[in-house]
TrEMBL record:
Gene3D superfamilies registered for this protein in UniProt: Type I PLP-dependent aspartate aminotransferase-like (Major domain)
Domain Aminotransferase class V: 7-79
The protein, known as: Aminotransferase class V domain-containing protein
One Pfam family this sequence matches: Aminotran_5
InterPro entries per record: Aminotrans_V_dom (IPR000192), PyrdxlP-dep_Trfase (IPR015424), PyrdxlP-dep_Trfase_major (IPR015421)
Coiled coil: none
Organism: Daphnia sinensis
Amino acid sequence: MITFAPGPSKVYDSLPIYLNDAYQEGILSANHRSSAFMKLYQETEQLMRIKLHMPEDYKLLFTSSSTENWEIISQSIVEHASFPHLLRFLRKKWIEFAKHILPATAGLKIEANQSIDVPNLQIAEEFDLIAITQNELQTHLK
């Protein structure tokens, strides 16, 4: 089975079992303020902290898409302009999207397999946010 949110990505063969378990436990109908969701969120956050060595002062946020992330970042974090360092497709899309909200947004084009010397990067001080995307979906590059 292939899903297109935000993929496409191959779905694990055991997904029907997990979905049935979630259904039986009532997770699928739990709203975002319920005790069931809060427990699930806390367990997920704790596992992310352990597996990704996430510092205690970091907060885990769930969003539905990269476009939603761009909007949240552009409207809620950046005051003047952002400077996303992104690979081909996503860089172009983020900059186009962010410029509608923050016209001074600019960025650096990074080709596949190109490395950047982060400590020695020269970026103007007017950028409130510098974003680096580690990877990009291959489906967008075709």
